[in-house]
Write a structure and sequence with these properties.
The chain has one domain: Methylamine Dehydrogenase, Chain H. Helices cover 0% and strands 47% of the residues. It has no helices and ten strands. The strands form three sheets. It has a four-stranded antiparallel sheet, with no helix packed on it. Strands 1-2-3 form a three-stranded antiparallel sheet, with no helix packed on it. The chain is globular, with a radius of gyration of 17 Å. The protein starts with 8 loop residues before the first strand and ends with a strand.
């Protein structure tokens, strides 16, 4: 007797230290996984060292929005529709963005930046 497993497709989003941001469609039936399942969401030729991704967080409970924190204190909003509708600069502290979150149903991003002297800070924008 052979048990047939249902193939499930998982969406995985990957941010890297050099700034690349990828979408991976992973199948639980591993025979369906290949390089075509990996999509670059930013132009890898335009990456700069200071734009490395330092943290990511879901921007809403529906998981249709991702907040991306970068080394240069930029915060980008990405929607799973494939858009980057907004970006912000977290210039209130020193260092990289080290934590992100959302309040008020995802409409108000929160940011945590590192600071070697005072620890992390949180702000709304």
């Amino acid at each position: 007797m052979q048990i047939k497993q249902e193939d499930k497709e998982l969406d995985i989003f990957v941010g890297t230290k050099i700034g690349s941001f990828k979408h991976v469609k992973y199948h639980t039936n591993v025979t369906k996984n290949n390089k075509k399942c990996i999509e670059n969401l930013v132009d890898i030729k335009s990456l700069q060292k200071h734009e490395g991704i330092t943290c990511m967080e879901w921007g809403n409970k529906e998981q249709t929005e991702i907040l991306i924190g970068k080394q240069n204190q930029e915060i980008q909003q990405y929607t799973t529709d494939g858009l980057f509708p907004r970006s912000y600069t977290a210039d209130f502290g020193k260092g990289h963005v080290v934590g992100l979150g959302a309040a008020t149903g995802g409409s108000c991003p929160l940011c945590l930046a590192e600071s070697s002297r005072y620890g992390a800070r949180r702000t709304r924008f």
